[in-house]
Amino acid sequence: xxxxxxLFTGTVGAGKTTAIQAVSEIPPVFTDxxxxxxxxxxxEMTTVALDYGEISLxxxxxxxxxxxxxxxxxxxxxxxxxxxxxxxxxxxxxxRPDPVQDLLLYLEHFKELIRETACVVVISKMSAERQTPxxxxxxxxxxxxxxxxxxxxxxxxxxxxxxxxxxxLLVQMETRQ
Amino acid sequence: xxxxxxxxxxxxxxRYVTTGCSQYDxxxxxxxxxxxxxxxxxxxDYHRTQDVDLVxxxxxxxxxxxxxxxxxxxxxxxxxxxxxxxxxxxxxxxLFLCPSPPHARQLVERLKEIEDFIRQQRIHLAIPxxxxxxxxxxxxxxxxxxxxxxxxxxxxxxxWRFATMLSASPITLDDAATRFACPRExxxxxxxxxxxxxxxxxxxxxxxxxxLPAKPENTKRSGLKGLFQRIRMSLGLxxxxxx
Lengths: 177, 243
Prior knowledge:
Chain A has 177 residues and is of the alpha/beta class. Chain A has helices spanning 16-23, 75-82, 99-109, 111-116, 135-144, 159-176, and strands at 2-10, 32-34, 45-47, 51-58, 61-67, 85-93, 119-124, 151-153. In chain B, helix 2 links the parallel strand 3 and strand 4.
């Protein structure tokens, strides 16, 4: 069996599990436990190892979709999951207190994977009530780090929007090959 | 600065096209331009193509048609003089409005504003004119320096894909047109806007990597290409992004 993988990372509750669920051909495998972590405000369950979904590419080939656990204390898992990934989707929960700082954390932890492969930044849970930081602020922050990647506000409960995110990730991979 | 017809300092040449203008509009416009052009201001050249600095829309065109023109024919950020009583607004173009039928004094005021606007645009770009810019942008790889604003991307998926391509690697217009399933003119217009608004810049000669011999189509590269196609097909995504 030939296997490839795309990684979804981001803050707790940003929608990694939901995004994988939206496009996976199999019922996704979750490693969620009841949350007792103060980071997980408003979330009953949280992922402690990984989320997993897959897409069949033929009889003997599949694309695996991995979601990392969100909390930084599980960051040792991030490196393991990064190995051999084709690209990375970073989900940033806009409703959290400092989403720009959250983004910086993931850009730093995954900088090697990002440099070598492809990356799309997804701002989730944007609401009309909270206008700031807007998408431009995220792109400015990335520019200051010399990073230019697609930044898209999306609702990952919508399969079409998740497919669009994967489309952009593929465009980068295709351009870089 | 540049010293040719598109110079920023001193006299500049502004190319314009007209559409939907009545005979009265045209006679007045040309008379005013003839007079205006002798006063040390810009030189105004009429052209038949859309590749101009200014589009002048006259009174013989319906408001709905103006909206259509703005959305389909007129590039983002382009100066548009509307001598028409239609109520038009656009955040994507620089509109200059004049009542119909226009009075000479009002027309002169708008022309001054337009000249200032175009002069500022060229100073901002530090390159002379749209026409020289064409050549410059078309012959140099373009690098994305910041992800474009949502306003510029305008929910147009072609723009998103093209910007994503640029974010992955500097690319020339020719390369983009070859690899991208989208009309070349549309890519070019978007490229101008990326450049004009500072989100993209041409690579300076000294920043360009030395020319390398063409890469053979090795197994890994062709394997990846096939893999990406299979992923696209499995996900039901557009497969004609690349050649």
